[in-house]
Structure formats: C-alpha cells, structure tokens
Batch of 2 targets.
Target 1
Amino acid sequence: MHVAYWIVAAPLALFYIYAGGKKLLQDQEQLRPMMGWVDSVPMPLVKLIGALEVLGALGLLLPPLTGITAWLAVAAAVGLVLVQIGGMTLHLSRGEVRETGLNIVLLVLAAVSVWLGTVWL
C-alpha cells in the first residue's frame, strides 16, 4: 500500500504545486490564457485556491515522509477532493462541461489518495 500511495500521491502533489504556484505567483492577465475562469472569480479567491492547492500538495508529501501526524495526508487528500468539487461546480455553472475532464481525473486521484493514505492511520 505504501508504494501504491506514492505512485498516486507524488505526481498528484507535483501537479498541485505547479498549478497552485501559478495561481499564487501570476496575475490575472498571465493566468487568463490558461484559466479563463479567473475573469469571473475575484483574484483573492484565485490566490486562496492556489494556496490551498500548494498546502494540500505539501500535506500529501510531508506527513508520510516525516512520520509525524501522518493522518494529515488523508486530510490533505480530502481537501483536494473538495477543491476539485468546487472546480467542477464552477465549470458547470459557466457551461464548461468539456473542461471538467481534468477535474474528474484529479478528483479520482485525490480520492484514491484518501483510500491509500489510510495505511498510516
């Protein structure tokens, strides 16, 4: 189970560090070509989403690596599931059904991380 967790959680965490970092470090004009939804969401909320993604990614990695409060990995994965539910809700409210594909993949991977992360509970 440990190996399976790392196979799922490590790439997922890398994705969220990249995507969340972009949201944290770039302004609206830089994000717009990649994320058209930033025009309909206040930038402080975009920054908050980015921070949650980065924190969730760190939560997937650091607790199991250190062995300290490893249950936080499960909590981080649950948080990332919730982030994707919010992302899907936003896309569907904007009529962007085709854009929900990545959200679904990330949601499934985060849910699998929740399940696999229970090995540390």
Target 2
Amino acid sequence: MSEGISTLERHLVIGAGPVGLAMAAALKRHGIPFDLVDAASGVGGNWLHGVYRHAHIVSSKKATEYTDYPMPDDYPDFPSADQMLAYLTAYAKDRGILSSSEFNKSVASASTDGAGTWIVKFADGEKRQYKGVVVCNGHHWDKRYPDFRGKFTGEILHSKDYVGHEQLADKRVLVIGGGNSGVDMACDAGRFGSSCDISLRSGYWYLPKTFLGRPLTDIPIWGLPIFLQRAILKSIVAVTIGDYRRYGLQWPDHKIFDRHPAFGTDLLNAIRLGRVNPRPAIDHVEGKTVTFADGTTGEYDIIVAATGFNTSFPFLREGLVKVHRGVVQVYGGAFPAGIRGLYIVGWAQARNGFGRLITPLSDLYARMITLQDELTLPLGTLMESSFTQRLPTTHLVDPEKSRREIRLAHWILPLLKLRDRRLARKQKLKSDKSRLTARA
C-alpha cells in the first residue's frame, strides 16, 4: 500500500493483469494516487494463473504490446505464456507500479457510502476507504460450464483448469467449444489422448495466424471500414483454407466479428490427420455416453469445457452494474450512469490484440478520473445524457475505430464541464421546485 497518503485521497485498482497494469501506469503518470491489489501472487492476471504454460498469444506481439513499451526484439511473432508473464512483470517494475501493489489481497466487497466515499472490505478482514474504485478484474476467471440434459459420470474439466497434456493422456476426450482454447485442447487431446471429438453448436470463423509471411493482425487492413475488413478476411479464408464444410465443420451462421473468431488452422490440420473428429451439439448424456443432435453417440472419459467465462463483479452489489449477455452496460467503455467514482475497465476484448488500444485508452481514462473532481455529476450520467453516447451492444471492440474516438474524446472533454453545469443547475431547480411543492 502507498505510504504517506490517506486512502481517502486514493483510488483502488482491482486486478494486476494487462489492463490493471496499464491503468495503474496511467494514474501514476497523471499524478493520481492509487493502490493496486490482486488476489493472485503477482502481476500478470490470466498469464500468471489462467493459461497452460505451453500456450501462445493468438494476436502478434506488435498487436499485443503496449504502444509505449515494445516487447523485446528476440521475442517471436507469437510469444509464449511465460514470455508474456516476463514482459508484464518487466512493465510493472519499469513503470514503478510494484511499490503501490499488494498481492494475495482479495476484495470481498466495494460499496459507496452515498457521500462519494467507497468502502472496500478485503477477504482478510481489512477495511479501507477510497476516493474511487477502478475495476480491472478481467474476463477470464468466472468459468462458464455447458448445460446439457442428463448427468455425465466421467470427469469434467474447464479449459481454465487445463495445465498440460498429462490430464488427457490415454483418455477418450470430448471437447465442447471451438474457440482458441477449444482448439488447443482438441489438438492436445488428439495427440496425447486415446481419441478426441469436438462438439460445436454452430460454425466458427477460423482465420489463419499468418498471411504472406506476416501475422494476420499486422497486415494493413484493420483501419478499413468493417465491411472491407470482412470481405478481405473472407477472401483470405477462401484462398488459404477453403470451405470449412470440407473439414466436417459447420459453416458460420454469423458475420466475422459478430463473435470472436479463432486464430490458427491447427484444428483443421488435426481433423485432416484424423486426430480430431468434429461432432454437432450435444442432445443429452447418460453416464459416459453422449448423444449428439444428429442421433450419433460417443463414449468419453473426460469432457473438456472450452465454453468461456461469465462477466461478473462479485464484490459489487448485485445489479449495481448491469451486464446484458456478457456486455457491461457502461458509457464510454467504463462509466456506469448514476455512480460516482466507479470505473469498469477491461471487460471488453479488442478484436485483434489489446496493445494498440489499451495505452491511449488508459491515458484518456486517467484524464477523465481527474476531471471527475471538477464535476458535480458522475461521468456516466453526463455521458448518458449525451445523444452521441450509447450503451455497447457487443464485447468485441474495433481497436482502430476506438483509437479514433479516443483522439476525438481528448478534444471534447472540456465540453463535459459545460454539460455538468447545465444539468446540475436543472437538477437543483427541479429539487427546489419539489421542496416548494411539498411545503405547499
């Protein structure tokens, strides 16, 4: 914990993953006192405790690195989990964040007293008061499991709990889910298990990691309008992969980026090698027998649930921040209406790597947190009243579009002060009128 400054003058940053570290660095750069806490033993978030050690990032290092802190030159295009952890640890040290950080420190609850102070209780019983709370608890921890009829009597393993192929050795494996984690689980099971099937409710967009010798996330298409991005990527798929149905997979029933695509062709190769067998959705289970929607069955020792995660904030009062189908209902990506001093950062996912977005975004958010001191109303309330602001409808973010919006936002921040005065004056007049009416 930072010394010499009352916690009443500080903000609490919850989470020391890539987003929490970027926010802490931005707060430090803007002279905003803070404490950073994380329930884990160190920095890194999911790269410390949430991925198997042989995992690699699916976006390139250029698309993933902080724009003001390049990854080492000797890192490959797609660094490993250990390299990512080393990179984030070095960032925290070089940015001077560790002196304000506490680890193995879990937040039990955070609530406002109604007068602008946040009361934070920790799992170890400690209680503190803060000026504000910056929530960066990530979106890869609250495990979501498949829901199917019947009871499976074998083992069910969530992808987050996967450590290595030893867990799958000589077992009949069924992987549920075809995203990046599901692909990795299926490929490992195809090599080290006695058999592997993968069950998909619908088709996925599988994009090659590289194109013409360059990482796909580095080719110069990401600043184009979305319809052009989709057209180019579909052409790349047609040339390099072909029709997914030739691999026994379903054709996607959605546009690219309506859902998060999977990067890489490892699953397609594993299918061609006979190591992985595609299956449709599950109809029901009985014992170790799984019956699929097409009437076929399979016997399995273990089900690997690569079914994603819920977006949740268990330390906040239920309903304080609404989440609709995984999309957090905040304005400007972080600001809930009607709540002063609460900022929800990092719940969304950049479509092609967070690096190009998180550094300028965290800098903007730090400026807005400073601005909140000069405002009567919460930032989210001011943004809710603006005709240019809408609640998000997806958790997938276009980094280049967001960067353009961030540059524009720096110019219009002063307008929030004018809007604040106008709305505060209206609210006061309304309140005064209500009191007069009540007395009459």
